[in-house]
Write a structure and sequence with these properties.
9 helices; 6 strands; 2 domains; elongated; six-stranded mixed β-sheet
Length: about 300
């Protein structure tokens, strides 16, 4: 088995490499595998959020593309934990809707937006590693699904209401078990482990393997990349010491308080039993107190 070469992470590639038309094949492959249809990118759309960022310390990356279906796709990669990330997704898609409708156009001209979120932190309570969110309407009384009329189907050029509204994809990278079951999993494995097998079957991955080879980077790019990787490790360490270690200490303190409270309750019970002339052995069995603790109680 050949040794797998170190590859550049997907977020760095989006910052520096995948914006080039020559490398659209890589992004198209990822989008095609995830969305289960052949995706062709027409252009990378510029905005304040996805202009080429020179700040290598940034742990948040996004890119906005327009595909051949006239849809806007936002790909966002996030490392830092954010409790309000769901609202942030909503804000981002809403902003794109507003940015891409011309004044005076009918609402039917609103662009379909697809929000893809690659998350490297614990998010929500769920054991899957890919989640999809869409909008549908259900009758309150009949529980029947609402469908488009034929006129609306002609207007929107789709049969489903959820195809009009934004779609959301959440990829919880840490939940992936490193076992590729299909071609999409090959991509998720790359997102998590930054490695690609010798003969990948997923669209775009062979091109990615050739293009994103760390050893082919110029020395100055390697230096910038290594500096950014070290920064991410440092931030992860800070998070661990601040939140995880802090949480452990808080739980330890809470447990000690609870133990003290339980001991106080046992002593109260023991005192009542002692005052009621219950023998020491029975009190010991009833409360679980030690001989030394009971001796102190009887000497009070």
């Amino acid at each position: 088995m050949s040794k797998q070469r170190k590859l550049i992470s997907f977020d760095w590639a989006i910052k520096r490499i995948l914006r080039s038309k020559a490398n659209f094949e890589i992004l198209e492959g990822f989008l095609s595998e995830l969305l289960k249809e052949d995706i062709k990118i027409l252009e990378i759309l510029e905005s304040e959020s996805n202009k080429d960022m020179k700040d290598d310390k940034s742990n948040q990356v996004d890119i906005k593309v327009k595909n051949s279906n006239d849809e806007i796709v936002i790909i966002e990669i996030q490392y830092s934990r954010e409790l309000d990330y769901l609202q942030r997704m909503l804000y981002a898609t809403s902003k794109v809707v507003i940015e891409h409708i011309s004044q005076g156009n009918a609402y039917s001209k609103i662009k379909k937006v697809i929000s893809i979120n690659i998350l490297y932190f614990d998010f929500g309570d769920g054991d899957d590693y890919i989640y999809k969110g869409t909008t549908n309407f259900e009758g309150i009384h009949t529980h029947n699904k609402l469908y488009l009329s034929q006129i609306q189907k002609d207007l929107y050029k789709t049969n489903e209401i959820n195809k009009i509204y934004p779609e959301y994809y959440l990829i919880k990278v840490k939940n992936f078990d490193d076992k590729s079951k299909d071609t999409l999993d090959e991509w998720i494995n790359f997102l998590k482990n930054e490695t690609i097998s010798d003969n990948p079957k997923a669209k775009g991955l062979l091109k990615a393997k050739e293009t994103l080879d760390y050893l082919n980077m110029p020395d100055d790019e390697k230096l910038a990349y290594d500096r950014r990787e070290e920064n991410l490790r440092r931030e992860a360490s800070i998070y661990e010491s601040t939140y995880i270690a802090g949480g452990i200490e808080a739980r330890k303190e809470e447990r000690l308080k609870s133990e003290v409270k339980i001991k106080e309750e046992k002593l109260k019970i023991a005192k009542k039993l002692f005052n009621a002339n219950v023998d020491i052995e029975t009190i010991k069995l009833s409360t679980g107190l030690t001989d030394m603790e009971l001796e102190k109680l009887t000497n009070q």
